Amino acid sequence: MITIAASSTVPRGISLIGVPTDIGAGSLGARMGPEALRVAGIAQAIAKFGLDVKDCGNLAGPANPWRDAVDGYRHLAEVVQWNQLVHEATYAELKDGRLPLMLGGDHCLSIGSISAVARHCRDAGKKLRVLWFDAHADFNTATLTPSGNIHGMPVACLCGHGPQALIEIGGHVPALRPKEIRQIGIRSVDAGEKRLVHDIGIEVFDMRYIDEMGMRHAMELALALVDANTHLHVSLDVDFLDPQIAPGVGTTVRGGPSYREAQLCMEMIADTGRLASLDLVELNPALDLRNQTAELAVDLIESLFGKSTLMRNSGGSA
After folding, report:
1. Which of 138, 180, 193, 302 is catalytic?
2. Which of 206, 237, 279, 295 is catalytic?
3. What is the pLDDT along the chain (318 residues), one digit of tens a residue?
4. Active site residue 151
5. What is residue 139's DSSP assignment?
6. Catalytic residue of the set 75, 87, 120, 136
7. Would you call 199 a catalytic residue per the annotation?
């Protein structure tokens, strides 16, 4: 069994929600992510810690038409439909007292999951903290990106900058306040996107900061003021990791965190006892090597649920 922080709230169980689509991405393949994670044993890995794991199966949404952008957005209608499905499924599991784990799929799907989490926090009167692990800031808009790929826009949409149909999912605009999000591992940001992120006031721990100050210090700041009334949501894009250890993504960026740096992030989150919802996105098995990225992702999820706490006593010392 895992060692839970004294003030933590243990969920009734973990609900896996498969979202097999690459509707917001610039390359095909992320639709196979949920099955690759299942093959890598994600349900069994979590169940080892004595938690009830329910696999809700895969959501069924529209096919990817693979068309060019229209008015700055690719596949907007389909992206909206998928995110509405994710929102409803995530919110239902939260209402049932369970921890939803969204198996993506591309990162545009976090519009649906995080808007549901924010809605749940408003209902429950809880504070929200979102940790966004990614190589990219994902704060593009239709005027900033020529591709129109919406997986580069979810943070902007959640903060109220995007098409009306997306920013209104969850019934509150913006779904997320900039002070509620911390971005970690960022190392690829467009110039216009950088200005927007700076102006809106999102706290970013980019790779330059991590190189200079260390991952432990970055995570201590990212987790500062998380308390018993905080719902902690992790949105983990596997391109956060260095591509030498995680090649199975469509948007690799060199210079990402090492295996141990990534494990430390997950371990420090586990130590808070406050993890309450989770996205795992952008795994592209078509670009992977023998499912190695999926297996690494499952390894990280094990640490999120307390793998390393087995080596510690209740006082936190080894």
Report:
1. 138
2. 237
3. 333 344 455 678 999 999 999 999 999 999 999 999 999 999 999 999 999 999 999 999 999 999 999 999 999 999 999 999 999 999 999 999 999 999 999 999 999 999 999 999 999 999 999 999 999 999 999 988 889 999 999 999 999 999 999 999 999 999 999 999 999 999 999 888 999 999 999 999 999 999 999 999 999 999 999 999 999 999 999 999 999 999 999 999 999 999 999 999 999 999 999 999 999 999 999 999 999 999 999 999 999 999 876 556 544 444
4. yes
5. -
6. 136
7. no
Specify whether 71 is catalytic: no
Q: Is 237 a catalytic residue?
A: yes
Q: Which residue shows structure tokens 């922080």?
A: 5
Under a CB-based contact definition with an 8 Å cutoff, are residues 83 and 169 in contact? yes
Q: Which residue of the set 78, 282, 288, 302 is catalytic?
A: 282
The answer to whether residue 136 is catalytic is yes
Domains of the chain: 14-311 (3.40.800.10)
CA distances from 265 to 7, 75, 95, 152, 214 (A): 20, 34, 28, 23, 11
CA dihedral 198, 230, 221, 181 (to 10 degrees): -20
